[in-house]
Design brief:
Length: 322
């Protein structure tokens, strides 16, 4: 590591030919990155994909102008010098290799890329003595500033922005809300019977808490692995199985723990009263999420969730009390 750092050259030590060669390789890299973003976005965000294709084409134009200038001043042989060869030079993090990048993350990365490129051209222009080179580098700095603004304004039209926002919202629901809601429903409802059966059978708050903890954590692990394993998201478009499994597992555990934690209170009836109140809040939270994100009519969601939860609760109390 130290030897690699020692071999890097300082920007101040680069000749004007080296600076041009570095700019050429940087423009080539950026064009490739933008095309990778365009390919990644083409299916879900066609307008933004087209914008990135246009930005890549402009980077190609910049590269050709730099090559023409290099040929005029220094000949056809361009030194092989890249970002990683220069100490302190701005680096491109390889986030474009990461699967399932969100549109917002890509926007932020594009803005950062163009801001760094603009700063490079301004710095390079300030230290060159050749008028033609100085003009070209200044023009490229202005062009990169324009790219910054375009990256901030993705997509190019209001209609496309609305369409892509809807697509992004749909992806959020499929990846996070839907599995999380399924987990919350499972954790809240399926643990009602064992927790309240134990509570009324033993009237021992600590035993009830342990049963609730075991049921909640076990259900969370089971739901998380099931969600992650049954669909890799490639064909369904539901997104990362890890994210879906995490959402489902965590919300299942939270749903069960909500009415298990009150049994840390030693008094049985106080703990049970609070647990019942928590169950009421959980069930109405599920109704709200279904209505808000899944477009389920409020009355239907209420009937399904509250009635189902009440029946499971009654079963637990009946079995435990018997």
């Amino acid at each position: 590591m130290l030897s690699a750092l020692a071999l890097r050259r300082r920007f101040a030590d680069l000749s004007e030919q080296d600076v041009l060669a570095l700019a050429i390789s940087s423009e080539e890299d950026d064009a490739r990155i933008y095309r990778s973003y365009a390919q990644r976005l083409r299916a879900g965000y066609p307008a933004s994909a087209a914008l990135f294709e246009g930005m890549a084409a402009e980077e190609d134009t910049h590269r050709q102008r730099l090559i023409d200038l290099h040929q005029a001043r220094f000949g056809d042989t361009i030194p092989l010098i890249r970002r990683e060869h220069v100490a302190g030079y701005y680096a491109r993090q390889p986030v474009w290799l990461t699967a399932n990048l969100s549109l917002d993350r890509i926007r932020a990365e594009a803005h950062q890329m163009e801001a760094a490129a603009r700063a490079f051209y301004e710095r390079a222009a300030a230290r060159t003595a050749d008028a033609a080179t100085r003009k070209l580098l200044g023009d490229l700095a202005a062009a990169e500033a324009g790219h910054e603004r375009r990256a901030d304004q993705l997509s190019p039209s209001g209609e496309a922005t609305a369409e892509e926002s809807a697509t992004e919202n749909r992806q959020f629901i499929l990846t996070w809300v839907q599995p999380g809601l399924a987990g919350l429903m499972d954790g809240s409802v399926s643990t009602l019977a064992p927790i309240f059966a134990t509570a009324f059978a033993t009237q021992d708050t600590w035993t009830t808490f342990l049963v609730g903890l075991a049921a909640s954590v076990g259900a969370g692990i089971s739901m998380g692995f099931t969600e992650a394993a049954h669909d890799d998201g490639v064909l369904s478009g539901r997104g990362s199985p890890f994210k879906r499994g995490l959402a489902s597992g965590v919300m299942t555990t939270v749903g069960g723990l909500g009415h298990a934690l009150p049994y840390l209170i030693p008094d049985f009836w106080t703990a049970t009263s609070i647990a019942i109140a928590v169950v009421f809040i959980e069930l109405w939270a599920i109704v709200w999420i279904q209505n808000r994100y899944m477009q389920t009519p409020f009355l239907r969601a209420t009937f399904q969730v509250v009635l189902g939860g009440a029946l499971v609760f009654a079963a637990g109390v009946f079995i435990g009390g018997g």
